[in-house]
Write a structure and sequence with these properties.
The chain is built from four helices and 15 strands. By secondary structure, it is α+β, with helices and mostly antiparallel strands. The protein folds into two domains: about 30 residues; about 270 residues, Cyclophilin-like (Cyclophilin, Beta Barrel), CATH 2.40.100. Strands 5-15-3-4-12-10-11-7-6 form a nine-stranded antiparallel β-sheet. Strands 1-2 form a two-stranded parallel sheet. A two-stranded antiparallel ribbon has the order 8-9.
Length: about 300
């Protein structure tokens, strides 16, 4: 009898050690995730932002364009929207797409696009989603290269059929731009772009300014853990809590919502958390799922 008790005691101790070790590994994975596309809060939030604030990607990606996880298991996606079938691949130099929306869809590019927009003009992105229409004035004065990249991808219909694959009420963000996987682990279009600095010598504004400040309605690029790792994934600020990202490095703000902020708030309000134990799923996603049918560009 005593021998059986000792055996049960040893088994119980071994089980507790295994549980503690598993918990330690889970916490370690969370520390390594980066924004990648999911910010849950505190340290995890910061990490997620680093990975792809969005998104996970290899692009290196969250957003690729956005983040990779420390686990070998594929990230869990709650988007509930099927991946978009591949479009054509563009090799060599990326041509400037036609402005009339007649380009055939492209989903893979060998090189980042050249400057295709006129920074002196006004560009408005119109997101037709299953939750409503959102309009964003792109900032071609302060962030011409980032705005240009978004316009080129939109005019090649890269985003058509994608989803808002991630929401996180703790920082009030809505992330999108992952048509290939509908998850933050999307590898993006095949290239990355340079971060445009938030510091500018703007004498009209009173001199040097920066870093980026996040306000309700901002359209922001997601990125991976390192600099210059953004490509296609983006996120919206749907509330004041996005300010918590200001200490997390450079997430380039390249537009401001002019119509549809109520739509964004409704999407964030429909958030459901990732299932318990899904370390690779960052934050959660809207329910019902939200599809971005098209992103069209108005130029004036």
């Amino acid at each position: 009898m005593a021998s059986q008790k000792r055996q049960r005691k040893r088994q119980g101790q071994a089980a507790r050690r295994a549980a503690l070790e598993a918990a330690r590994h889970r916490q370690e994975r969370k520390r390594k995730v980066g924004l990648g596309a999911g910010l849950v809060g505190g340290v995890v939030l910061l990490a997620l932002l680093a990975t792809y604030l969005f998104g996970g990607r290899d692009e290196k990606s969250p957003a690729a364009s956005t983040s990779t996880t420390a686990s070998s298991a594929p990230p869990v996606t709650l988007a509930g929207v099927a991946p978009v079938p591949p479009g054509r691949s563009i090799t060599g130099e990326t041509p400037c797409p036609k402005a009339d929306g007649s380009e055939a869809r492209a989903s893979k590019f060998e090189k980042a696009p050249p400057m295709c927009i006129d920074p002196a003009k006004t560009y408005t992105a119109v997101l037709a989603t299953s939750a409503g229409t959102v309009k964003v004035k792109l900032d071609t004065a302060k962030t011409p290269a980032t705005a240009n990249n978004f316009v080129v991808l939109a005019r090649f219909h890269y985003y058509d059929g994608s989803s808002f694959q991630r929401t996180d009420p703790s920082i009030e963000i809505i992330q999108g731009g992952s048509p290939n996987t509908q998850s933050i682990a999307d590898k993006g279009p095949g290239y990355t772009i340079k971060d445009e600095p938030a510091f500018t010598n703007d004498t009209a504004a009173g001199g040097l300014k920066g870093p980026y400040k996040y306000t309700e309605g901002d359209l922001v690029m997601a990125r991976s853990q390192g600099p210059d790792s953004a490509s296609a994934q983006y996120f919206f600020s749907a509330g004041p809590q996005t300010k918590s990202l200001e200490a997390q490095g450079t997430y380039v703000v390249f537009g401001q919502t002019t119509e549809g902020l109520d739509v964004l708030k409704k999407v964030l309000g429909s958030h459901v958390d990732c299932p318990p134990g899904s370390e690779a799923c960052l934050g959660g996603a809207p329910r019902p799922p939200v599809t971005v049918t098209t992103i069209s560009i108005e130029e004036s």
